[in-house]
Design a protein that fits this description.
Layout (H helix, E strand, L loop, with lengths): L5 H15 L3 H15 L6 H14 L15 H10 L12 H11 L1
Helix pairs in contact: 1-3, 1-5, 2-3, 4-5
């Protein structure tokens, strides 16, 4: 199993979509996770996301380019990701443009 930083790169975009959808139950879950990670009672979901991004950097989690993904592959990878079974369980649908932005950030 290869570890990449895609998940941490996805968090800011995903949280933004949750806020747009006003999905308060899920945002509250992410706030609780941020509270556990940061030890702050009033931690915001974005603070937890930033913590995860910094951990990925600290532990040198490889970027997608280190796994052979090329910049010209972003659209194809995003389209395949959008069609993957793992995406069907997400409470918020990420558009192909969202996925491309995540891939760009993880590259």
């Amino acid at each position: 199993y290869k570890v990449t930083g895609v998940q941490t790169c996805a968090l800011p975009i995903y949280l933004s979509r949750l806020r747009q959808a006003e999905n308060l139950p899920l945002l509250n879950r992410y706030a609780q996770i941020a509270h556990w990670l940061l030890g702050k009672d009033d931690a915001e979901p974005e603070e937890g996301a930033e913590w995860a991004v910094q951990i990925a950097k600290r532990f040198s989690i490889p970027k997608l380019r280190e796994h052979g993904i090329k910049a010209g592959d972003f659209r194809m990878v995003a389209e395949k990701a959008a069609a993957a079974n793992s995406m069907k369980g997400n409470p918020i649908k990420l558009e192909t443009t969202d996925l491309e932005a995540i891939i760009q950030e993880a590259w």
